[in-house]
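[Target chain]
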Amino acid sequence: MNIIPKPVKIIEKSGFYKLHETISVKRNEETENIIEVFGKELNIITDLKLETTEKDFDLQLVFDEDIPQLEGYQILVNNNGIRISSGKKAGLFYGLITFLQLIVNNEVPFCEIEDKPRFQWRGMHLDVSRHFFSIKFIKHFIDLLALHKLNVFHWHLTDDNGWRIEIKKYPQLTEVCGWRRNLEHIPWNERNNSNEKGNGIYGGFYTQEEIKDIVKYAAERYITVVPEIEMPGHTSEVFVAYPQFSCREKKLEVAAGGYWPNLDIFCAGEEKTFAFLEDILSEIIQLFPSPYIHIGGDEAEKTRWKECPKCQKRIADEHLKDENELQSYFIKRISKFLFEKGKIPIGWDEIIQGGLAKDVVVMCWRGDGKDASENAISTGNKAILCPNPILYFDWKQVEDSQGTFGVTTLKQVYEYDPVHIGISKENEHLILGAQANVWTEWMTTNKDVEFMTFPRICALAEVTWCKKDNKNWLNFLSRLTKFKSILDKYNVNYYS
């Protein structure tokens, strides 16, 4: 059976259940929304239709309290039809995603399936600052995450190259900071040294109504949308409209391309900086029901802090050792605000420097992620693994393919294990899971994103869903060959 990710247990039996033009589903008010969403996915890959009925049904969704795992499910296919059971709606949805993949030529093989995920965090990231992507594509991307049973969409909404989310209290963040010179005809890392006026402007942003629509759309597919608002670094775009929150208080230009070193960051010595960020986060909290808010924390160059009298005074007043501890102060202060609002902060692994705030989740990206995850776990903090040599999908898939930096092959992704040697059994629960990151400096179109993401996302799905001893590379390749026919139905531009 060509199911991705591979279920925990499959018992194949002799025979098939024949589906006709319409799949009849047992009517149940509690599962109406799930069936409606499933019907949309069914229409993408088959000509079958759905109808609900009280009797003579092909498909039945059953709540079973004996299946305790939130996302676990069971499937039984026999002469009586298809029965999908779970203790929760999320499990029923994932059971339907598996059922979708079982359908071949309007037949479903007789079988018994028991399944549940290994990790609670199964994520995909998308950077929309470097290049902006439409609501239509975001929904398409979310559909594809759901197809792979991924349950977190990490939305990188702000960075040096554009602010992408409407904040009512500070409208210039999108009116001004969301737009840059259009230098798309110049290589990314050569743009900031260019004196060209450019071909007009490039940019875009999502209104709060659009954000709510995406959050709802994702939730219907049991995907949590985690927003990222970068701080204290990767924030130079803010200073185009609000220079008063930087150390130099100098008005900048939204970076049209590669911006490095990341010198201009939020001033940590100025109280109004924290008031500004708390205002922004207050609106973010209202838009995203996610228990997590990502606050960045990576690659914050400390040069301006060293030169800034206000930041140096903050170091002295707070009895801090250096600028690393000043960043820790910054992150801890923002984290305290979020905790008070009932949210859990996540930060890139640089937030460990200078001291890690209690209960903040660390996203481990540098190198193989081992040092960062072990440092996080040593203080009781939880970690998410996304090491850049393996789970950064802007890296090339083979040496001569599209992409940047090094090579990350499909096999390298597939063989990755977030729980690496050195993590004790009693600490394994502190590894929430893993995700892949899609940075879009060199991805200007929807098709570029798909080409870099697929089929590596298929391998990621198995990394985050399957137990290590249930994975087999050759078996995966065999299933993937046939799974690509489903990707074709979604018109995915995958690397082949």
Observations:
- The chain is about 30% helix and 20% strand.
- The two ends are 21 Å apart (CA to CA).
- The first strand starts at residue 9 and ends at 18.
